[in-house]
Amino acid sequence: MPAEQSFDTVLVVDFGAQYAQLIARRVRECNVFSEIVPSTMPVAEMMAKRPKAIILSGGPSSVYEDGAPAAPAGLFETGVPTLGICYGFQVMAQALGGLVENSDVAEYGGTTVTVLPGGPAGSSRLDQSLESVLFSGLPAEQSVWMSHRDSCSTAPLGFVVTATSQVTPVAAMEDPDRGLYGVQFHPEVMHTEHGQAVLRRFLYEAAGCRPNWTMVNIAEESIEAVRAQIGGKRVICGLSGGVDSAVAAALVHRAVGDQLTCVFVDHGLLRKGEAKQVEQDFVAATGVRLHVVDAAAEFLSALTGVTDPEAKRKIIGREFIRAFERAAREITEDAGAHGESTEFLVQGTLYPDVVESGGGTGTANIKSHHNVGGLPDDLKFRLVEPLRSLF
User: Fold this and answer.
1) Catalytic residue, candidates 86, 152, 209, 262
2) Which residue has the higher pLDDT, 341 or 302?
3) How confident is residue 373, by pLDDT bands cut at 50, 70 and 90?
4) Pairing of strands 344-346, 9-14
């Protein structure tokens, strides 16, 4: 993160949920930047990222079991507006003195919740006149997506219960004075009919986030960042023919112009005629210099007899880098006496690549992508990844 940035940041704290990335995407669809971080990250590290808001994801555990993931110490005393979703909601409720217990009846799938704008009789909050922040302007009954057996039966002191269902006494709770909110359902999934509206109300009304993280800012800031990183040096871009690397190449070309040479590696596993098509179409569309490396023999030899998918990914990552190194030497030789060695390699790495490879601060390693977790340890290039923070 730059020292000064023009946009707000929302941290999505991952408790092992299959939906953590989806939550982050939904936040970005509200034109607010989001980043996934693990539930084990200390609060001081979270605060160093200067979040405008925090969202606690769902997860597969039960909060009352030994070893269940908990909120980092001090998280709810930071003053940063925080929304708990499903397991994250239960973590908040239990940590602040509410009661979370196993329910006799589970709720899975579409469920109707009833909004209680002022809180039900007997709410743990003394002031019962609170109007819900999350549900303001939304229908009193609405369909949401539930996925839980545990439920919060008693909200913590200071909260008003703002939604309930037939099975779940506390389907949503709010304490605007402390900026703390929780919902048992999943607003991030499409099956929750007003889920995106609930998220928008949390981001804009509860947290005061500015919806100014747009494609225009992203492009402009990426181009400036690339220009500052590369300076006057030579750079190559690994071009696959797909959208990710083509967009990365376009951004870098706008930043440094003819300092860029794209490299297309024919690794012998392409569709018939694909290499020639990429070579013709890309150059015709962009005018960027393209260098083609025939590395089919090297790739196929290295992969012979290998059946383990993760081992294949590591081999492919290594062979791509060897091919880029060969291309860099050939480009330098072609430039003759004035040739300057290539220092930078552009890749179309996306945020899911980083998260799934265990290279980010979010979920555990799912698989090594060849442009992230599969890179060799002796990498000589300095990486340029203008799309690294994007889905």
Assistant:
1) 86
2) 302
3) low
4) unpaired
**Pair 378, 339: CB distance under 8 Å:** no
| 290 φψ region: left (φ > 0), alpha (ψ -120 to 50), beta (else) | beta
CA distance 58 to 19: 7
Q: What pLDDT shows up at residue 192?
A: 94
Respond yes or no: is residue 101 known to be catalytic: no
Is pLDDT at 269 greater than 90 in this prediction? no
Catalytic residue among 186, 253, 267, 369: 186
Catalytic residue, candidates 188, 325, 356, 385: 188
pTM: 0.76
| Burial class of residue 100 in the structure, from the number of CB atoms within 10 Å of its CB (0-12 exposed, 13-18 middle, 19+ buried) | buried
Q: Any catalytic annotation for residue 86?
A: yes
pLDDT in tens, 205-258: 999 999 999 888 888 889 999 999 999 999 999 988 888 998 999 999 999 999
Judged by phi (left if over 0) then psi (alpha if -120 to 50, else beta), residue 294 lies in: beta
Classify the C-alpha dihedral 332-334-337-339 as positive or negative. Answer: negative
* Beta carbons within 8 Å of 148's beta carbon, 6+ residues apart: 86, 87, 103, 106, 107, 108, 168, 184
Q: Which of 212, 148, 210 is nearest to 182 (CA)?
A: 148
The yes-or-no answer on residue 279 being catalytic is no
